[in-house]
Protein backbone atom coordinates (compact mmCIF):
# COMPACT_ATOMS: atom_id res chain seq x y z
CA UNK A 1 0.00 0.00 0.00
CA UNK A 2 2.80 2.41 0.91
CA UNK A 3 4.40 1.84 -2.50
CA UNK A 4 1.13 2.64 -4.28
CA UNK A 5 0.66 5.82 -2.27
CA UNK A 6 4.22 6.87 -3.00
CA UNK A 7 3.62 6.32 -6.72
CA UNK A 8 0.61 8.67 -6.60
CA UNK A 9 2.81 11.36 -5.04
CA UNK A 10 5.55 10.84 -7.60
CA UNK A 11 2.97 11.51 -10.30
CA UNK A 12 1.70 14.55 -8.38
CA UNK A 13 4.97 16.46 -8.01
CA UNK A 14 4.50 20.06 -9.08
CA UNK A 15 6.00 20.79 -12.48
CA UNK A 16 6.52 24.40 -11.42
CA UNK A 17 6.91 25.68 -7.88
CA UNK A 18 3.47 27.38 -7.52
CA UNK A 19 4.77 29.08 -4.39
CA UNK A 20 5.23 25.84 -2.45
CA UNK A 21 8.23 25.43 -0.17
CA UNK A 22 8.76 21.97 -1.68
CA UNK A 23 7.31 20.60 -4.90
CA UNK A 24 6.73 17.09 -3.55
CA UNK A 25 3.43 16.07 -1.90
CA UNK A 26 3.66 13.37 0.77
CA UNK A 27 1.89 10.24 1.92
CA UNK A 28 0.02 9.86 5.23
CA UNK A 29 1.62 8.03 8.12
CA UNK A 30 -0.13 4.67 8.49
CA UNK A 31 0.99 2.78 11.62
CA UNK A 32 1.24 -0.96 11.93
CA UNK A 33 -2.06 -2.42 13.16
CA UNK A 34 -3.91 0.60 11.78
CA UNK A 35 -7.34 0.99 13.37
CA UNK A 36 -8.94 2.47 10.24
CA UNK A 37 -9.14 6.04 11.61
CA UNK A 38 -7.48 8.77 9.52
CA UNK A 39 -6.89 12.18 11.14
CA UNK A 40 -6.05 15.19 8.99
CA UNK A 41 -4.79 18.59 10.08
CA UNK A 42 -4.48 21.43 7.55
CA UNK A 43 -0.89 21.92 6.30
CA UNK A 44 2.67 21.68 7.62
CA UNK A 45 4.03 24.89 9.09
CA UNK A 46 7.34 25.45 7.29
CA UNK A 47 7.87 29.02 8.49
CA UNK A 48 11.25 30.33 9.67
CA UNK A 49 10.47 29.08 13.17
CA UNK A 50 10.75 25.57 11.69
CA UNK A 51 13.86 26.24 9.59
CA UNK A 52 15.67 23.31 11.23
CA UNK A 53 13.03 20.96 9.82
CA UNK A 54 13.08 22.75 6.44
CA UNK A 55 16.83 22.17 6.32
CA UNK A 56 16.29 18.46 6.97
CA UNK A 57 13.77 18.27 4.11
CA UNK A 58 16.18 20.08 1.79
CA UNK A 59 18.90 17.56 2.60
CA UNK A 60 16.93 14.35 2.05
CA UNK A 61 16.11 12.78 -1.30
CA UNK A 62 12.82 12.98 -3.20
CA UNK A 63 11.51 9.63 -1.97
CA UNK A 64 12.23 10.62 1.63
CA UNK A 65 10.43 13.92 1.11
CA UNK A 66 7.38 12.00 -0.09
CA UNK A 67 7.68 9.70 2.93
CA UNK A 68 8.58 12.58 5.27
CA UNK A 69 6.07 11.65 7.98
CA UNK A 70 7.55 8.15 8.25
CA UNK A 71 11.04 9.66 8.18
CA UNK A 72 10.16 12.06 11.03
CA UNK A 73 8.58 9.32 13.16
CA UNK A 74 11.64 7.14 12.64
CA UNK A 75 14.26 9.82 13.31
CA UNK A 76 12.48 12.13 15.78
CA UNK A 77 9.59 10.08 17.18
CA UNK A 78 7.09 12.66 15.93
CA UNK A 79 5.20 13.18 12.68
CA UNK A 80 5.94 16.91 12.31
CA UNK A 81 2.21 17.67 12.36
CA UNK A 82 1.92 20.23 15.14
CA UNK A 83 -1.58 19.57 16.57
CA UNK A 84 -0.86 15.84 16.50
CA UNK A 85 2.64 16.00 17.98
CA UNK A 86 1.63 18.37 20.79
CA UNK A 87 -1.10 15.96 21.94
CA UNK A 88 -4.16 18.05 21.01
CA UNK A 89 -5.52 15.69 18.36
CA UNK A 90 -4.30 12.56 20.14
CA UNK A 91 -6.21 13.51 23.28
CA UNK A 92 -9.32 14.37 21.27
CA UNK A 93 -9.32 11.16 19.23
CA UNK A 94 -8.67 8.82 22.14
CA UNK A 95 -11.35 10.56 24.22
CA UNK A 96 -14.04 10.70 21.55
CA UNK A 97 -13.50 7.44 19.66
CA UNK A 98 -11.93 5.31 22.40
CA UNK A 99 -9.14 4.25 20.05
CA UNK A 100 -5.39 4.40 20.58
CA UNK A 101 -3.54 7.25 18.89
CA UNK A 102 -0.56 4.99 18.24
CA UNK A 103 -2.75 2.91 15.87
CA UNK A 104 -4.29 5.94 14.15
CA UNK A 105 -3.20 7.26 10.74
CA UNK A 106 -2.32 10.92 10.46
CA UNK A 107 -1.44 13.49 7.83
CA UNK A 108 -2.19 16.98 6.65
CA UNK A 109 -4.96 17.43 4.11
CA UNK A 110 -3.04 20.08 2.16
CA UNK A 111 0.05 18.32 0.85
CA UNK A 112 2.13 21.42 0.15
CA UNK A 113 3.13 24.35 2.36
CA UNK A 114 3.68 28.00 1.56
CA UNK A 115 5.49 30.84 3.28
CA UNK A 116 6.01 34.52 2.66
CA UNK A 117 9.50 35.65 3.63
CA UNK A 118 9.72 34.06 7.08
CA UNK A 119 6.02 33.59 7.88
CA UNK A 120 3.74 30.63 7.30
CA UNK A 121 0.81 31.51 5.03
CA UNK A 122 -2.44 29.80 4.18
CA UNK A 123 -2.16 27.44 1.21
CA UNK A 124 -3.62 28.66 -2.06
CA UNK A 125 -6.84 27.30 -3.52
CA UNK A 126 -4.76 25.81 -6.34
CA UNK A 127 -2.71 23.72 -3.88
CA UNK A 128 -5.82 22.71 -1.93
CA UNK A 129 -7.50 21.56 -5.15
CA UNK A 130 -4.36 19.67 -6.21
CA UNK A 131 -4.30 18.04 -2.78
CA UNK A 132 -7.94 17.00 -3.19
CA UNK A 133 -7.09 15.24 -6.45
CA UNK A 134 -4.36 13.27 -4.71
CA UNK A 135 -6.57 12.45 -1.72
CA UNK A 136 -9.21 11.11 -4.07
CA UNK A 137 -6.66 8.53 -5.19
CA UNK A 138 -5.29 7.95 -1.69
CA UNK A 139 -8.73 7.24 -0.25
CA UNK A 140 -9.57 4.70 -2.93
CA UNK A 141 -6.57 2.73 -1.71
CA UNK A 142 -6.81 3.39 2.02
CA UNK A 143 -10.59 3.03 2.44
CA UNK A 144 -10.53 4.30 6.05
CA UNK A 145 -13.42 3.60 8.40
CA UNK A 146 -13.52 7.26 9.46
CA UNK A 147 -11.86 10.44 8.21
CA UNK A 148 -11.54 13.19 10.80
CA UNK A 149 -10.59 16.66 9.60
CA UNK A 150 -9.41 19.47 11.87
CA UNK A 151 -10.02 22.89 10.35
CA UNK A 152 -11.86 24.34 7.38
CA UNK A 153 -9.05 23.79 4.88
CA UNK A 154 -8.82 20.10 5.69
CA UNK A 155 -12.61 19.87 5.49
CA UNK A 156 -12.56 21.57 2.07
CA UNK A 157 -9.95 19.17 0.68
CA UNK A 158 -11.82 16.04 1.73
CA UNK A 159 -15.15 17.35 0.45
CA UNK A 160 -13.47 18.26 -2.84
CA UNK A 161 -12.01 14.75 -3.05
CA UNK A 162 -15.58 13.41 -3.26
CA UNK A 163 -15.06 11.10 -0.29
CA UNK A 164 -18.38 9.40 0.39
CA UNK A 165 -17.47 7.60 3.60
CA UNK A 166 -17.81 8.81 7.17
CA UNK A 167 -16.31 12.27 7.64
CA UNK A 168 -16.18 13.96 11.04
CA UNK A 169 -15.43 17.69 11.01
CA UNK A 170 -13.67 19.29 13.98
CA UNK A 171 -12.31 22.76 14.59
CA UNK A 172 -8.57 23.28 14.22
CA UNK A 173 -7.03 23.30 17.72
CA UNK A 174 -5.03 26.47 17.07
CA UNK A 175 -3.74 28.03 20.30
CA UNK A 176 -5.17 31.49 19.59
CA UNK A 177 -8.64 30.22 18.67
CA UNK A 178 -8.83 27.82 21.62
CA UNK A 179 -7.59 30.42 24.10
CA UNK A 180 -10.44 32.77 23.20
CA UNK A 181 -13.02 30.33 24.56
CA UNK A 182 -11.29 27.76 26.76
CA UNK A 183 -10.80 30.30 29.53
CA UNK A 184 -14.57 30.59 29.89
CA UNK A 185 -14.61 27.15 31.56
CA UNK A 186 -13.03 25.62 34.62
CA UNK A 187 -10.80 22.71 33.62
CA UNK A 188 -11.85 20.65 36.64
CA UNK A 189 -15.49 21.12 35.73
CA UNK A 190 -14.90 20.04 32.13
CA UNK A 191 -13.11 16.90 33.29
CA UNK A 192 -16.05 16.05 35.60
CA UNK A 193 -18.54 16.50 32.79
CA UNK A 194 -16.39 14.65 30.27
CA UNK A 195 -14.99 11.58 32.07
CA UNK A 196 -13.78 10.21 28.71
CA UNK A 197 -11.36 13.11 28.49
CA UNK A 198 -10.33 12.82 32.14
CA UNK A 199 -9.43 9.15 31.65
CA UNK A 200 -7.12 9.90 28.70
CA UNK A 201 -5.52 12.86 30.51
CA UNK A 202 -4.68 10.60 33.46
CA UNK A 203 -3.22 7.97 31.12
CA UNK A 204 -1.21 10.48 29.06
CA UNK A 205 -0.13 13.41 31.28
CA UNK A 206 2.62 14.51 28.88
CA UNK A 207 0.00 15.42 26.27
CA UNK A 208 -1.27 18.23 28.49
CA UNK A 209 2.05 19.40 29.90
CA UNK A 210 1.58 22.66 27.97
CA UNK A 211 -1.66 24.52 27.12
CA UNK A 212 -3.60 22.04 29.25
CA UNK A 213 -6.81 24.07 29.33
CA UNK A 214 -6.90 24.50 25.56
CA UNK A 215 -6.30 20.81 24.89
CA UNK A 216 -8.92 19.63 27.35
CA UNK A 217 -11.45 22.08 25.95
CA UNK A 218 -10.73 20.86 22.40
CA UNK A 219 -11.05 17.22 23.44
CA UNK A 220 -14.45 18.00 24.99
CA UNK A 221 -15.43 19.63 21.68
CA UNK A 222 -14.48 16.42 19.86
CA UNK A 223 -16.46 14.22 22.28
CA UNK A 224 -19.50 16.47 21.94
CA UNK A 225 -19.38 16.47 18.13
CA UNK A 226 -18.73 12.76 17.74
CA UNK A 227 -21.37 11.74 20.30
CA UNK A 228 -23.97 13.42 18.11
CA UNK A 229 -23.12 11.24 15.10
Give a description of the structure.
The chain is of the alpha/beta class. 50% of the residues lie in helices and 11% in strands. It has one domain: Uracil-DNA Glycosylase, subunit E. The protein has helices spanning 2-11, 51-59, 62-66, 68-76, 82-85, 88-97, 125-142, 152-160, 175-182, 187-193, 195-203, 212-227, and strands at 37-41, 105-108, 114-116, 119-121, 146-150, 166-170. Helix 6 (88-97) crosses helix 11 (195-203) and helix 7 (125-142) packs across helix 8. The longest helix has 18 residues, at 125-142. The chain is globular, with a radius of gyration of 17 Å. The model has no long low-confidence stretch (mean pLDDT 95).
Lateral arrangement of strands in the main beta sheet:
2-1-5-6
The number of helical segments is 12
Please give the CATH class: Alpha Beta
Cα-atom radius of gyration: 17 Å
Query: What number of structural domains do the residues give?
Result: 1
CATH architecture: 3-Layer(aba) Sandwich
- Spatial separation of the terminal alpha carbons: 30 Å
- Based on helices, strands and strand pairing, what is the structural class? alpha/beta
Proportion of helical residues: 40-55%
- Poorly predicted runs are none
> If you consult CATH, what is the topology?
Uracil-DNA Glycosylase, subunit E
What is the overall pLDDT average? 95
Total strand segments:
6
Largest sheet: 4 strands, parallel
Beta strand %: 5-15%
What is the general shape? globular
How would you spell out the order of helices and strands?
Answer: HEHHHHHEEEHEHEHHHH
Amino acid sequence: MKKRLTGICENGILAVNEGAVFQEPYIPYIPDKWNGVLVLAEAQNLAKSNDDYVAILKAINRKQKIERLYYAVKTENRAMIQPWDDGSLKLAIESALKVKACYTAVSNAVLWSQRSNTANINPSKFLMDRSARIWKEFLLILRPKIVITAGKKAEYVIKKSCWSGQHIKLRLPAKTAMSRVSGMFQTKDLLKRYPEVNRVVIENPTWVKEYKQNKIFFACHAVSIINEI
